[in-house]
Backbone:
């Protein structure tokens, strides 16, 4: 098993649904339990052995860049999208030169979690097999997905491969915005802005999109209300 040591945090979104908390700051700098969302993500990645983190920038880019410059415990590289947002897929393609052809984590900045047993990024590292996978998605059980408003994104088949939940009778899982991808996942990708969903569908058809179930609770911090719920939940877990 070769360890995944590089990662990308998606930090370029406008944070529209998080207003008014994002009126004066980018969404990755919204705080939960006294720590910014992006620092929560970086902390988890470092604990999993990541040594280089790429962060894409757009809304209030200078503020986010200044904040990240304070970290000395990991190499942080910026991918500038200030001129044009490239969506989830296009953003990764633009940042691809920073990964040196190696597999890497992709983490949404508004995703945090409480670990139940094995830390999920470690579990993903252990499960990752670049020979048979183009991407490995973290999946959350619907009962432990806080702040998630959908009906489920994927189903997990007995062989570990994933399929779209729509039209399937198996138990659906939510996607918490965490994955390991091999650069070849994006071979032949569209140019400009596009969603990673386009690439996932191709990997599903090839039988090379796989899943790893989160042992713990996922918290999607996508709105001010969800942020309040997250703070309340985390406070209840902390010793008095």
Residues:
């Amino acid at each position: 098993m070769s360890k995944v040591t590089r990662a990308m945090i998606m930090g370029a979104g406008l944070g529209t649904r998080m207003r008014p908390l994002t009126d004066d700051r980018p969404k990755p700098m919204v705080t939960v339990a006294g720590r910014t969302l992006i620092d929560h993500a970086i902390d988890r990645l470092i604990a999993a052995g990541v040594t280089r983190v790429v962060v894409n920038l757009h809304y209030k880019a200078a503020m986010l860049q200044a904040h990240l410059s304070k970290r000395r415990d990991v190499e942080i590289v910026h991918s500038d999208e200030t001129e044009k947002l490239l969506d989830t897929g296009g953003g990764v393609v633009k940042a691809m030169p920073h990964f040196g052809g190696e597999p890497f984590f992709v983490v949404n900045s508004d995703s945090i979690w409480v670990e139940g047993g094995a830390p999920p990024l470690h579990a993903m590292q252990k499960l990752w097999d670049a020979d048979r996978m183009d991407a490995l998605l973290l999946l959350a059980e619907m009962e432990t997905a806080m702040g998630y408003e959908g009906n489920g994104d994927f189903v997990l088949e007995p062989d570990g491969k994933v399929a779209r939940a729509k039209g399937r009778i198996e138990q659906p899982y939510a996607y918490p915005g965490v994955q390991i991808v091999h650069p070849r996942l994006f071979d032949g990708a569209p140019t400009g802005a596009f969603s990673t969903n386009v690439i996932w569908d191709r990997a599903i058809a090839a039988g090379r999109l796989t899943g790893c179930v989160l042992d713990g609770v996922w918290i999607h911090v996508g709105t001010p209300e969800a942020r309040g719920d997250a703070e309340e939940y985390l406070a209840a877990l902390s010793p008095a």
User: Anything to note?
Assistant: The chain is about 25% helix and 25% strand. The first strand starts at residue 6 and ends at 10. Residues 134 and 182 are 5 Å apart (CA to CA). The longest helix spans residues 224-237.
